[in-house]
Amino acid sequence: MDQIIAATGMSSSAVYGYFRSKDDLIDATVDEALGQLGELFAALLSTNPAPSPYEVFDALVGNIRSRMRNPDYDLSQLAMQAWVEALRRPHLATRVAEFYRLVRERLHGLAQRWQEAGQLAPDADAASVATLLATLMPGMIVSEQLVDRISPDQLIAGMAGLAGQRRDPA
Q: According to the model, what pLDDT value does residue 7 have?
């Protein structure tokens, strides 16, 4: 908290007026990051016609990059820290898990709309597609932060490559 107080230039009483502890500050940060991502999915779902898979990847990558623009308040880094905090704080783990389940439900809704629009094979399991995409999201954040920038084109090409594979009968 001392570092936060020093970085903000606020008095300790002002900072503690908003946040009683480091955990309260982390909780507020998690709420902010999850809220922004929730707004993105609400917008994607309300779009008519449904955005294509490419447009969804483009929006997700754009969202991650927009979070990275301000190095002093990079919500994608804070998301990574929140995942670590969730490992030590069960109530935070529950909130994060509930959020990602909601994201998966929203992606399921998009996948169903892609099937209706002919952008996803009619025999594809929309729930499995949603699970795959929801699982990719944290990886996208890690890649942007620690490895290389990614593009929606790379993601779509990789997905298309996987789609051409046959299912292992075992």
A: 65
